Q: What sequence folds into this?
């Protein structure tokens, strides 16, 4: 993948260059200290991937994205976790890296960029799977904004009074809704209500012990009545 | 303040490349004093929104040099400055001074 780096901080550009140098499939063809220079470059060049800083003077990363007619895949790089929600509004953004960036986290972002490429290319023969990318998306209303959540990334959903807490691989969302409502929106083959307060993604189970399952670092209780269905879903040896 | 700067992150990133390590340290040595100077100018002029932007940038270097609690102080200070609250200045400046001293010694 041909890529460019846009970041006003030279230290950050050097770090991304170094991380890219450790990934064979990445070829950094240019780097820019501001978005304006990058826009000029993109008028006559095409790239597959952009590493983009959000917080730049005069012209932010989000301003830059809005100028692109056909944006390539974008990995945001920032020191600010507060922009994560806004990032989800752009389909071209494949990941969101918080500085200082480590190699394992960087590699995960590249995997996401590659898998997005695969899913885009298989969309033309989509009837094979029968699952459109839209069916993988769930929009939730948070502070009067509709935030997109990629359903397979959801680990756990927990009932919390009038709210539900949706825990995904990267982020948690508190939404005014009920487990019953969200359960209707989730694919049956992936999600299971294991307790009156919990729905889990069965693919994310690390281990099961007595009446609980471990997902990431969360120990989730399993009701006695739901345990048989859970066991049925497992590929037991 | 009990935290001290270190090069662990940079060495991990370098993965044995001394050239990269030297290059990155040299960039930091050049950028850091400029960023600190700009921050102090904005802070002393009480242009706190601009000072918050400076802290935002300095935050990356604070994290890179191994400060964990210091990184959180920078986050809180940046948020405070956005609301005209400079209460963490003294704590923040101690971090910058520790980095300055460290960079002079390497």
A:
């Amino acid at each position: 993948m041909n890529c460019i780096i846009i970041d006003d901080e030279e230290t950050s550009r050097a770090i991304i260059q170094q991380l890219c140098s450790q990934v064979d499939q990445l070829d950094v063809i240019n780097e820019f200290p501001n978005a304006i220079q990058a826009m000029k470059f993109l008028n006559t060049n095409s790239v597959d991937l952009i590493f983009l800083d959000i917080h730049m003077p005069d012209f932010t990363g989000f301003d830059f994205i809005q100028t692109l007619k056909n944006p390539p895949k974008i990995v945001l790089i920032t020191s600010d976790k507060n922009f994560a929600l806004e990032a989800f509004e752009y389909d071209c953004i494949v990941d969101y890296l918080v500085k200082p960036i480590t190699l394992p986290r960087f590699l995960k972002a590249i995997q996401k960029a590659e898998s997005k490429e695969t899913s885009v290319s298989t969309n033309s023969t989509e009837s094979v799977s029968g699952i459109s990318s839209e069916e993988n998306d769930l929009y939730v209303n948070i502070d009067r904004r509709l935030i997109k959540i990629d359903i397979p990334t959801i680990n756990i959903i927990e009932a919390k009074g009038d709210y539900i807490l949706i825990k995904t691989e990267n982020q948690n969302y508190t939404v005014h809704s009920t487990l019953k409502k969200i359960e209707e929106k989730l694919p049956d083959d992936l999600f299971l209500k294991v307790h009156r307060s919990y729905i889990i993604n069965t693919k994310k189970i690390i281990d099961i012990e007595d009446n609980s399952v471990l997902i990431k670092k969360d120990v989730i209780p399993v009701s006695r009545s739901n345990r048989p269905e859970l066991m049925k879903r497992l590929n037991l040896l | 303040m009990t935290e001290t700067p270190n090069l662990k992150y940079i060495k991990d990133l370098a993965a044995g490349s001394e050239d990269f390590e030297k290059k990155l340290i040299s960039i930091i040595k050049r950028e850091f004093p400029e960023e600190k100077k700009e921050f102090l100018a904005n802070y002393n002029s009480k242009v706190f929104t601009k000072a918050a932007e400076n802290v935002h940038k300095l935050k990356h270097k604070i994290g890179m040099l191994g400060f964990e609690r210091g990184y959180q102080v920078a986050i809180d200070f940046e948020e405070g400055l956005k609301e005209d609250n400079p209460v963490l200045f003294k704590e923040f400046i101690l971090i910058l001074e520790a980095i300055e001293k460290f960079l002079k010694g390497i």
